[in-house]
């Protein structure tokens, strides 16, 4: 597979992909805690949030505010869910650079993929709560996708089991209380992988990338997320070929209408032994 040749970039020295940056996600800050009994000054652990630049052939495509963990998963999942590549094999992460004010991920694409990207090119600044910020047209925002081909149907008990287990995979959130999670479960509800980020869509991209890099077939399982379910969450789920997404909070109108067009089941308010199916109820194996 021929990858486009990168132009030399006079920027910082690349880090090894095994650099501690890819494992960190928190830092200590001095904080003042006020209670009824007085004031306590101490160190508190908070989650990292940094600009993460995504470069293809040394050309900046997007800057996302994200937690700088699982960065290869993030780059892979973003590239897949944005339709930049069709498989993880088409992407090569060549360097992860730590800059003074953020992180840069450098990638290479096959020549034909890079040419298509340049035709479509957008530069965006994405907030940690934003999944489609900076898109320069309605057509790009609502980019159509093929329907998900999976025939999987997931039992309500399996959905509840996966959502109940999700906090056990949220180590960053236990430390900081500021992080979303996305988990992938098999049809029995057993979690296979969990990824975390300050942005819910970033967490989902990291999860999609992790599945792709591990060559896990996503068509037989489902996603659980510790957030609301908005359009971009369904869009990314469908792009990955995952047949159902379950959220702990509410869906949006565009999420539900788009899910119907691509065949992704949307389940929300999964908590306290209950759930509500909002789109494609055939994806849920209701008890008789």
Automatic annotation (TrEMBL):
Pfam families: FdhD-NarQ (PF02634)
Binding residues for Mo-bis(molybdopterin guanine dinucleotide): 269-274
Keywords: Cytoplasm, Molybdenum cofactor biosynthesis
TM region positions: none
Enzyme active site: 130
Statement: the UniProt record of this protein carries the keyword Zinc: no
Subcellular location: Cytoplasm
InterPro entries assigned to the protein according to its UniProt record, in alphabetical order: Cytidine_deaminase-like, FdhD
Gene3D superfamilies: 3.10.20.10, Cytidine Deaminase, domain 2
Family: Belongs to the FdhD family.
Function in brief: Required for formate dehydrogenase (FDH) activity. Acts as a sulfur carrier protein that transfers sulfur from IscS to the molybdenum cofactor prior to its insertion into FDH.
PANTHER family reported for this sequence: FORMATE DEHYDROGENASE, SULFUR CARRIER PROTEIN FDHD
Protein name: Sulfur carrier protein FdhD
Source organism of the structure: Azospirillum endophyticum
Gene name, Swiss-Prot/TrEMBL: fdhD
